[in-house]
Amino acid sequence: MEAARGALYRGSCAYGAAAFAAFVLSLSALSVAPTAAASEAAVVQNAAPAPERIEGVEFASDIESAAPNATGGKSGPIVLVLPLASDSFRRAAEAVRAGFLSAADAAKATPLVIEHGDGDVMTAFAKAKAVGASVIVGPLIRDDMKLLAQSGAELPPTIALNQLDEGASLPRNVYILTLTIDGEARQLARVARDDGAATVAVIASDTPRQQRFASAFNAEWILAGGDAPVMFRFDPSPDVLRLLKRELGTARVDVALLAVDAADAARAKPYVGSIPSYTSSEVNERQSPDVLRDLDNVRFVEIPWLANADTGASPDRKRAEYSNPALERLYALGMDAFRVAQAFAAGKPSQLEFDGATGHLSLESTRQFVREGKLMQFRAGRVVPAGAR
Question: Could you identify which of 103, 285, 295, 347 might form a hypothetical disulfide with 335, taking C-beta atoms 3.0 to 4.6 angstroms apart as the criterion?
Fold first, then answer.
């Protein structure tokens, strides 16, 4: 049992006074934490490849040379820069491209697509500048964001689809529009506080992604006036889970955050019991009926593109057919990215706010788009809006 207790706690079930003070002092640094180089969308499998050429869409390889703004006196094109030639990120890039082109088609616009491989993003950006891009959309990959920031390149308005690591300065003219679980965590913290919760248990695995999710939640939770979270380290062993159940029974917390992967959320929830529980959208991955029953009443934030489909209110645009929800989220990101790019092509907006496929988007003074998704929950094996009966 002592071994189980050691596995359950991260030093202490609550922050000590010194640790809590250090945590509060570091709140400003918690908005973005270092992660692996991949896009937040992660690597996805089994998507049907998009055609190499799409009618009505120009590709950079079709253009031998072009002077800046060589568009018959009009402003330059909107240029989408994606790692379509990358073995690792091609499928993710294809989903973004499909959503972007769907939105462009609806707007009767003709964007320019420039593809690149691993480590070759700056060549693609040079091509975008050479054709007189009015707006560039990209990069998609975090390592490519680092290369862009380090280059010091002069850029037209650029809508990046990933973010820099903590503490890194955003290059001039670069704006951030991305899907991150950090934003979901902050929204969940506000929801819990608005519902009257004062104390929270955070059950977190050791993966960098889930640690970042927990840190973003904790930061927003304390800023909103909540008490220091009670921290538990997730361990799937039955002894540790039984101990977790006992400790939660005596901790008297109002809500629990499950900062764990989708399969582990279903594994942990029965031991959390009736405590209102929150987790990331990763839990909504078309799980089996048995798993869905274990997740009953767990709440999470989902993008409207998926939330509306689950509740029968399908968007007007023809839906993409993807077997993986991660790809659908990327498709939705592409749709919103075009809408943002179109707004910037008309001139840098002082304010920009709209309801998009990925959520309610609003441009902050930090040049980052804040995204508010839809609060959903599992109910009797289905995903329904939170609070639905």
Answer: 103
39 and 144 part of one domain: yes
The enclosing domain of 234 has a CATH number of 3.40.50.2300
Instruction: Let me know if residue 381 belongs to a domain.
Output: no
Q: How many domains does the chain have?
A: 2
**Alpha-carbon gap, residue 139 to 49, rounded angstroms:** 20
Per-residue CA distances from 179 to 141, 203, 222 (Å): 12, 23, 23
Give the pLDDT of residue 357: 96
Side-chain-side CA neighbours of residue 183 (13 Å): 24
pTM for this one? 0.81
| Confidence label for 21 from pLDDT (cuts 50, 70 and 90) | very low
- Name the nearest CA neighbour of 111 among 86, 130, 133, 91: 133
Range of the structural domain that residue 20 is part of? 2-30+181-302
Tell me what pLDDT residue 72 has.
Answer: 33
Q: Do 39 and 159 share a domain, yes or no?
A: yes
Judge whether 373 lies within some domain: no
Is 102 in the same domain as 156?
yes
DSSP letter for each residue of 284-301: -S---HHHHHHTTT-EEE
The answer to whether 233 and 7 have CB atoms below 8 angstroms apart is yes
